[in-house]
Amino acid sequence: MRALTACLAAILLVAPATPARAADPTYPFRDPDLPVATRIDDLVARLTLDEKISLLHQHQPAIPRLGIGPFRTGTEALHGVAWLGEATVFPQAIGLATTWDPELMRQVGTAVGREARGFHAKDPAANGLNLWAPVVNLLRDPRWGRNEEGYSEDPYLTGALSTAYGKGLSGDHPTYLQAAPTLKHYLANNNEVSRETTSSMLPPRLLHDYEYAAFRPAIAAGAATGVMTSYNLVNGRPATVEPSLNTDVRRWTDRDLLVVSDAFAPGNLTGPQQYYATQAEANAAALKAGVDSFTQDGSSNGSTIAAVTAAVQQGLLTVSDVDRAVRHILSIRFRLGEFDPPSRNPYAAITPDVINSPAHQRLARKAADEQIVLLKNSAGTLPLSPSRTRKVAVVGPLADTLYTDWYSGTLPYAVTPRQGIQERVPGSTVVGGEGVDRIALRDLATGRYVTATGTTDANPVNVTGTAAGDAAQFDVFDWGQGLLTLRNAANGKVLGYNWGPFVTRDAQPNSWFVQQQFKLEQQPDGSYVIRYAGYETREPWFPAERYLTVDSAGNLALGAQTAATAARFAKETVSSGIDSAVAAATGADVAVVVVGSMPFINGRETNDRVSTALADGQSALIKAVRRANPNTVVVVENSYPTTLNWEQENVPAILWTTHAGQETGRAIAGALFGDTNPSGRLTQTWYRSDAELPSILDYDIAKTGMTYLYHRGTPLYPFGYGLSYTTFAYSSLRLDANSVTLDVTNTGRRAGAETVQLYTHQRKSRAVQPVKQLRGFARVDLAPGQTKTVRIPLKASDLAFWDVTRGRPVVESGAYDVLVGASATDIRRTATLTVKGETIPPRDLRRPTPAYTFDDYAGTTLVDTTKASGTAVAATAAGQWVKFADADLGSGVGAFTARVSASSPSTIQVRLGGPTGRLLGTLSVPATADRYTWTTASTPLRGAAGRQDVYLVFTAPAAVDSLTLS
Fold first, then answer.
1. Which of 42, 256, 262, 855 is catalytic?
2. Torsion over CA of 662, 667, 669 and 670, rounded to 10 degrees?
3. Which GO terms describe its biological process (predicted)?
């Protein structure tokens, strides 16, 4: 029978593509025994051009005549399946990363992939199996609003963890995918401010050794089936049309990749980016660059189909261009088993029963346990003894609440910190409170109180209360920089705006516009005005008014553009949060203060943080409780490094956890009482002050001294840091050609897990090298007194870096420090590795040299040479320069030739030794028609020979694409 099927298939391969009957089982594309490439060829040949184009949108329609169902890209699965209903919610991605546990990451990924299959079984058309996770953007700046979505500031760690998570999502079957992971967001996407129009500058070494190094591992390992392009520009070109998608990313694997755009990013090309005049040009360029699927206009595919169709009609695209993208899409659909009998695909049997299964709940608890980081523990403050802890005070704004983030799933249940502690010590007295002020706001014009009238959109908050009863009382949560949420005491809902009336409808701040945040601004006369601090946009439909007034019906309204015309209120404090927290803490055996962030307010998509400090009100609460009870433990629950200088100096013990999902409270209690031994390790540098941070738009970490790779200051907590309730000793470090081996001993009285970290430092190099660089790690579990031998792979080839002079990786000969320890600054054992590699020869500027391959620069930036490809150097002001180090000028050079562009006439000086060094000549740069028009200019040079550092110094704005000294 199989032979007959194969024979029929061979005949059909050359038969005309006639409709036949829908879902004809003899179609070769439905034969699972044929090679996938053959099946794709057959299906593509049967599709009309219109049908092919329809597949290029996120929401791919059904093709009934071929029995093909709809397909949708883009199920969110960052730390659990999101937006589809209740699902297991694991710790945020940054929390999963702090486990430094790839095997746990794989297990979590497997669970999330299974739940995606479960949701798919519920509704195959709506719940897709193309998952937009993990996020591998490097966390170079802690102010990034989406810090919780990433893993680490280090590319090696990010690559290892994303590979593990991706393998879990995709499954381990040799033929079929459990789900199809898509890496976000390619490329250099680490700021939200003006994210559609800012350009991330990536010199070649930063591009290859930092950014590519984060994305490549999962793709090369087959743990990712695609990437999503980012909103920003890279070296002047929108990432949506980034040519390296084809020239680099697809070369990292021999499997097809499905490249998707970020939501509405194709429209940005003609919108805020103004990169193309028409959408047909924009979509054609994106398709040619490597984008296969356009995420635009939600489920409406009309504009995408119209633009691509027009591009084909105008000759901007060929049918083969469309076919290429369709093949990439279909490749993933075939691997998901869509066109095969379900009996062939083991993942097709997964049912919705897996969603939030008991096994997944246990895994969520394990992940929440492992991600907790012990930041400080003086004099054995922790763990607490359950038998000796008869009264516990649990206070703070996060003591009684679990918060979720934008990409979180819906919590199926929630164990808060106070609940977790009470559950752990059921015989003890657990007291507490959120430590927030309860206030009433009285309108000075009428003497009436701001009052909640219900919890629906039909219940506007009005100013009619004659007394400050519960409905007129609000709990004030301080999230920093003056941002507050106001929760009504009567109904437990937060005050929010709803494009009309103000209401108390929501249990927590939420949604894209985050309309539940306010500022109370005190006026010179002592009164207060209420500033709405929700989403602000440049869109003309958004109200210009930002201050609250009272309308003719007595309801709160958004009616004033300035404080001068806003309603004035008296703020009456009903009860003091600090006073109640101090009362609870006084006399308690231990006071646990739970502070942190609200993920929809303290940085989110479209909103970076302006500070990494705790909110002033939270800091004041910690200080007051510490004065009242010396045995104070602080639990910081947020998603980013925080400046905890006072707390580090004055509080006996500090734990850090991310918003860790449904089991957060139990995990905190387990760590506090020693049921688990904290083993989390930081994946970012925690700086001491915001003053140490450069512009969030400066991506060159080597120039700015950012991340542990280049930071030379003393951090508050270093990369890789985390304490334990036991101690570990390192001994017997050995090196061989392929690995580093050492013995690790638990020298304490408790079982614990140590994360052994292997770093290297190159002592001498032609290029600027990191202070140290992570090359490997191993998490090892040890019983008290137990010793284990740890082996971490390390080969000479691992030490390669990008040589800008020759455009390829290089391993330099020389001595390398091998550093093994418990963090980037806690190095326990060292050794020297002598490597026989190569010596980078001097530059030969007598050959045409791309200008962007400079060795150093000041002020200049990188721009696109053309819209399709190429990178050039641009100066925006006089005095900016680029340096080409150690150039061999031979017996002498007499001319300088460059491919240049300028909006008005300019000059470029050629100097030796420095930007003010010996002047060899000055090149006159003529004005060109536009920035994409290039011309070649030359000038004679006064003689220079030998090995020299050559500087190009700009005297006015201009751009250089390439240069030659001849």
1. 262
2. 150
3. arabinan catabolic process; xylan catabolic process
